[in-house]
Amino acid sequence: MTDEQAGFTPATVRRRLASMLYEAFLLAGVLAVAFVLPQLLLGMARQTAAHGLLLWLHVFAVLLVYFLWFWRHGGQTLAMKTWKIRLVSSDGAPPAGRQLLLRYVLAWPGLLLCGLGLLWALADRDRQFLHDRIAGTRLIRA
């Protein structure tokens, strides 16, 4: 069943990419407070920087909390609200916690592999990103 048949209007790929760009700017502030500041303070106290893997895990955890909290409380991050995009389950209901976690985890390889998970939308029948297709979620017009 396509998005239109399911009764909701999908967000366009252009709108989703614009929202992602805006989200990147917002995340710079989030990471400055929740990642850089704690790492600087810990580094000064220990006189050494944390191991690279630990730093990546910290970034992963900060972004996990950010996205899951916003998606769980209204289906929209700040950028998604600005661009009038909402995250829903394939049936239009609020996504389950398992779907949100799966979407978040699957988005990483889709972005880090030269955006292949995003490029998937060009071939997908509903223009969904690969992580949305697998997680059973949709980005719709709010």
Could you walk me through the main structural features you see in this protein, from its secondary elements to its overall organization?
With 142 residues, the protein is mostly helical. The chain has one domain. 63% of the residues lie in helices and 7% in strands. It contains 7 helices and 2 strands, in the order H-H-H-H-E-H-H-H-E. The protein has helices at residues 3-6, 13-46, 52-72, 78-82, 97-112, 116-119, 130-135; strands at 85-89, 137-141. Strands 1-2 form a two-stranded antiparallel ribbon. The longest helix is centred in the first third of the chain and has 34 residues, at 13-46. The radius of gyration is 17 Å and the shape is elongated. It starts with a helix and ends with a strand. The model has no long low-confidence stretch (mean pLDDT 93).
